[in-house]
Write a structure and sequence with these properties.
The chain has 402 residues and is α/β, with parallel strands linked by helices. The protein has a single domain, classed as Metal-dependent hydrolases (TIM Barrel), CATH 3.20.20.140. Helices cover 50% and strands 12% of the residues. The protein contains 17 helices and 8 strands. An 8-stranded parallel sheet has the order 1-2-3-4-5-6-7-8.
């Protein structure tokens, strides 16, 4: 029904895109050679065969690729380059608004401060933005970006040298306690940098292992960014169930949910937040999310690769989300690791689920409306209007009747 050219031409958002999972493979290899980082192969074919596979057998295998991207992103030049290239790649696929997230603390301990790391990423995005917007007609939405800072649910000695400093300061604390305090420090640094610099920090996120590391333990960190009016999204319901999503909303005041894949899975409710009525709990939670337009950042390809129980894309829980008219936006998650881009995600969606042109328009514009756009609300309204106008013009050009 929709051609690839049409899906590429319409304006799009990507609100859940990990910086360290979205490098160009060619650039990863080049930077590894320059920085003497050992890779399993120094060809794209070899890395795709050994690390970045089209399919993965487990989440552990999926996450292996971040070991290599993290190893080359330990200086400002590399961080700036990765952000710059990501912005151009997204724009060339029709993305007009990008929110990229990453955990600066994973890059600390290598001679860079939190501020230097975030500033380098912002420079890369800003340089690309300036170049891109010279090419954008005045009546179309310009390319815009926002940075989301991630805190980690769980820390251990394998993450970065920064962790050793946390251990040295708190030698008798548990891993969970250190993780909570590390998140609070990241939140304070995020709020300070947001208020004192022009870096386009638009949101705060909680990522990492859900099982055993509940969101409510990081409530102090989210209260800190909430005081500074920084928007909040939380990875929840990806490797755990509805209770994890509930905690993200109830304890962290999340405005969006990253993934939310297991929202409807009765087998992943363990009774910590519910009574015996599991079905009732899911219904009440789903209705709450829908009624308050809490947006679910859905990553189809990534979910298929890390959740083997979803054997058929048509059985992905996003089908139920769409049937319930929930606020959903399609995202890439990790472009390198998942071998995808925003166009391939949309292709999966429109080929697998019922997307009339009007419904597709509503879904696309949902991404713009529920973004953490950094400018005043009145300017955001104008920006969204430009996106709607561009979609309508493009639909007419390609013979798609709204």
């Amino acid at each position: 029904m929709y051609s690839d050219d049409f899906l590429r031409a319409i304006p799009k958002t990507d609100l859940h895109c990990h910086l360290d999972g979205s490098l160009r493979l060619k650039s990863l290899i080049e930077m590894a050679k320059e920085r003497k980082v050992e890779l399993p192969s120094y060809t794209e074919e070899g890395m795709n065969a050994l690390v970045y596979k089209p399919e993965y057998v487990s989440l552990v295998e999926y996450l292996k690729g971040f070991m290599y991207t993290g190893a080359v992103m330990r200086d400002e030049e590399a961080l700036e380059r990765v952000a710059y290239e990501l912005a151009w790649d997204c724009f060339n696929e029709g993305v007009r608004y990008l929110e990229s997230r990453f955990a600066p603390q994973l890059h600390m301990g290598y001679g860079m401060t939190f501020e230097q790391i975030v500033a380098a990423v912002d420079r890369g995005f800003r340089t690309a933005q300036t170049e891109i917007n010279r090419t954008v007609p005045e009546y179309d939405p310009e390319f815009e970006y926002g940075i989301i800072i991630c805190a980690m649910r769980c820390w251990n000695e394998y993450y970065s040298p920064y962790y050793k400093g946390v251990v040295d300061a708190l030698p008798y604390a548990t891993v969970a306690e250190r993780s909570q305090l590390a998140s609070l420090e990241v939140a304070r640094a995020t709020a300070k940098m947001r208020s004192e610099t022009n870096c386009q920090i638009v949101g705060f996120d909680l990522a990492g292992a859900e099982d055993g590391y509940p969101a409510d333990k990081h409530a102090a960190a989210f209260a800190e960014v909430h005081k500074s009016f920084i928007s909040r999204t939380v990875h929840a319901g990806e490797a755990y169930g509805a209770e994890s999503i509930y905690r993200a909303l109830e304890k962290l005041n999340a405005e969006r949910v990253g993934h939310g894949t297991n929202l409807f899975d009765l087998n992943k409710i363990y009774g910590y937040e519910t009574d015996a009525d599991k079905n009732g709990f899911i219904e009440r939670l789903a209705n709450y999310i829908a009624d308050r337009r809490i947006t679910l950042e859905v990553c189809l390809t990534s979910n298929m690769q890390t959740l083997p129980e979803i054997k058929d894309i048509r059985n992905h829980p996003v089908k139920k989300m769409l049937e319930r008219n929930m606020s959903v936006t399609f995202c890439t998650d990790n472009r390198l690791v998942s071998h995808n881009n925003i166009c391939t995600e949309l292709r999966l969606a429109v080929d697998s689920f019922d997307f009339t042109p009007k419904k597709l328009l509503d879904n696309i514009i949902c991404g713009f409306k529920r973004s953490f756009f950094y400018r005043p609300y009145q300017e955001k309204r104008k920006y969204v209007r430009k996106a709607i106008n561009m979609f309508e013009r493009t639909a007419k050009e390609y013979g798609v009747e709204l």
